[in-house]
């Protein structure tokens, strides 16, 4: 029986901690990021995890099948995804699924991916494509590889599959992490993906933060950690495409500058109690920023 409430807000599943890109703004490129003993979750381990969650009648509002690495590097990713969808009868495990991908390994898998995402059309699915450019030259400067033609081709094909078949899912997010290297392509980025959607009578929303979307979205993501330059570039995007949000954020930013010397109590992150993360090897953590898994030990060692 479908629950009327969810025990926790979000479960993040670390399908793998390996990535095939070398993004200059990512933890994968940081000196402190631990790349020893990397791997990917086996189908049997994923099955055990979700069988156990099902038996214990634990539910999550959202399942996020991404943490630290590119999920399609895991050869069992679609098999795991299909099992999870079939296990999630009447939304007993989760109501929505959210998938991050750089899209570089999707070629030849687009139809299978779409089929799995539509096993149950009532389960709302969102796929966030990390793009960051509209050209191979800029893509390589930011993401360190020459995969841009692959991702553009696969994303176009997935849009066509959704619009020309009975598939209802997913919602697509076109993500642009705004920074100096791609700021000059911002308008071209918007124009390109808006035109792709307009071919099918659709148009995107614009956003600067993630929430539940019912239509495709162009996501102006801020660079983290923020610099004065990156914030200025990001605010420029908001001013043009999200003027109301820009006005509010600009007022908040100005007030923070004036109050910079005022000491405020630190507010604990509430996500620690609502969004557990299970890494590919069974390790767990409560913090999405705990990339080296220093906060908790392997749940397999616990009673």
From TrEMBL:
Domain of life: Bacteria
Ranges where the Radical SAM core domain occurs: 3-266
Keywords for the protein's UniProt record, in alphabetical order: Iron, Iron-sulfur, Metal-binding, S-adenosyl-L-methionine
CDD domains: Radical_SAM
InterPro entries, A to Z: Aldolase_TIM, Radical_SAM_PqqE_MftC-like, rSAM, rSAM_sf
GO MF entry, a single one: metal ion binding
One Pfam family recorded for the sequence: Radical_SAM
PROSITE patterns tied to this protein: RADICAL_SAM
Claim: S-adenosyl-L-methionine is one of the keywords in the record: yes
Protein known as: Radical SAM core domain-containing protein
Organism classification: Bacteria, Candidatus Muiribacteriota, Candidatus Muiribacteriia, Candidatus Muiribacteriales, Candidatus Muiribacteriaceae
């Amino acid at each position: 029986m479908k629950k009327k409430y969810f025990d926790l807000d979000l479960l993040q599943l670390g399908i793998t901690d390996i990535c095939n890109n070398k993004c200059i703004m990512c933890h994968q490129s940081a000196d402190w990021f631990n790349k020893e003993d990397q791997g990917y979750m086996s189908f049997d381990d994923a099955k055990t995890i979700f069988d156990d969650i099902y038996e214990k009648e634990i539910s999550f509002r959202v399942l996020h099948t991404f943490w630290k690495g590119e999920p399609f590097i895991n050869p069992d990713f679609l098999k795991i995804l299909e099992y999870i969808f079939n296990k999630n009868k009447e939304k007993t495990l989760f109501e929505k699924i959210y998938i991050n991908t750089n899209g570089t390994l999707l070629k030849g898998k687009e139809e299978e991916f779409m089929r799995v995402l539509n096993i149950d059309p009532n389960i709302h699915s969102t796929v966030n494509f990390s793009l960051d450019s509209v050209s191979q030259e800029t893509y390589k400067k930011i993401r360190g590889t020459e995969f841009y033609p692959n991702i553009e081709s696969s994303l176009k094909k997935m849009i066509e599959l959704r619009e020309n078949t009975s598939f209802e899912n997913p919602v697509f997010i076109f993500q642009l992490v705004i920074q100096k290297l791609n700021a000059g392509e911002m308008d071209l980025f918007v124009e390109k993906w808006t035109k792709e959607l307009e071919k099918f009578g659709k148009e995107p929303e614009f956003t600067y933060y993630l929430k539940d979307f019912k239509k495709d979205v162009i996501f102006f993501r801020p660079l983290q950690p923020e610099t004065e330059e990156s914030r200025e570039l990001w605010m420029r995007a908001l001013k043009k495409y999200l003027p109301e949000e820009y006005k509010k954020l600009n007022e908040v930013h100005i007030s923070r500058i004036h109050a910079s010397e005022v000491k405020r109590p630190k507010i604990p992150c509430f996500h620690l109690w609502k969004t557990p993360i299970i890494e590919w090897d069974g390790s767990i953590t409560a913090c999405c920023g705990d990339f080296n898994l220093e906060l908790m030990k392997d749940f397999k060692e616990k009673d």
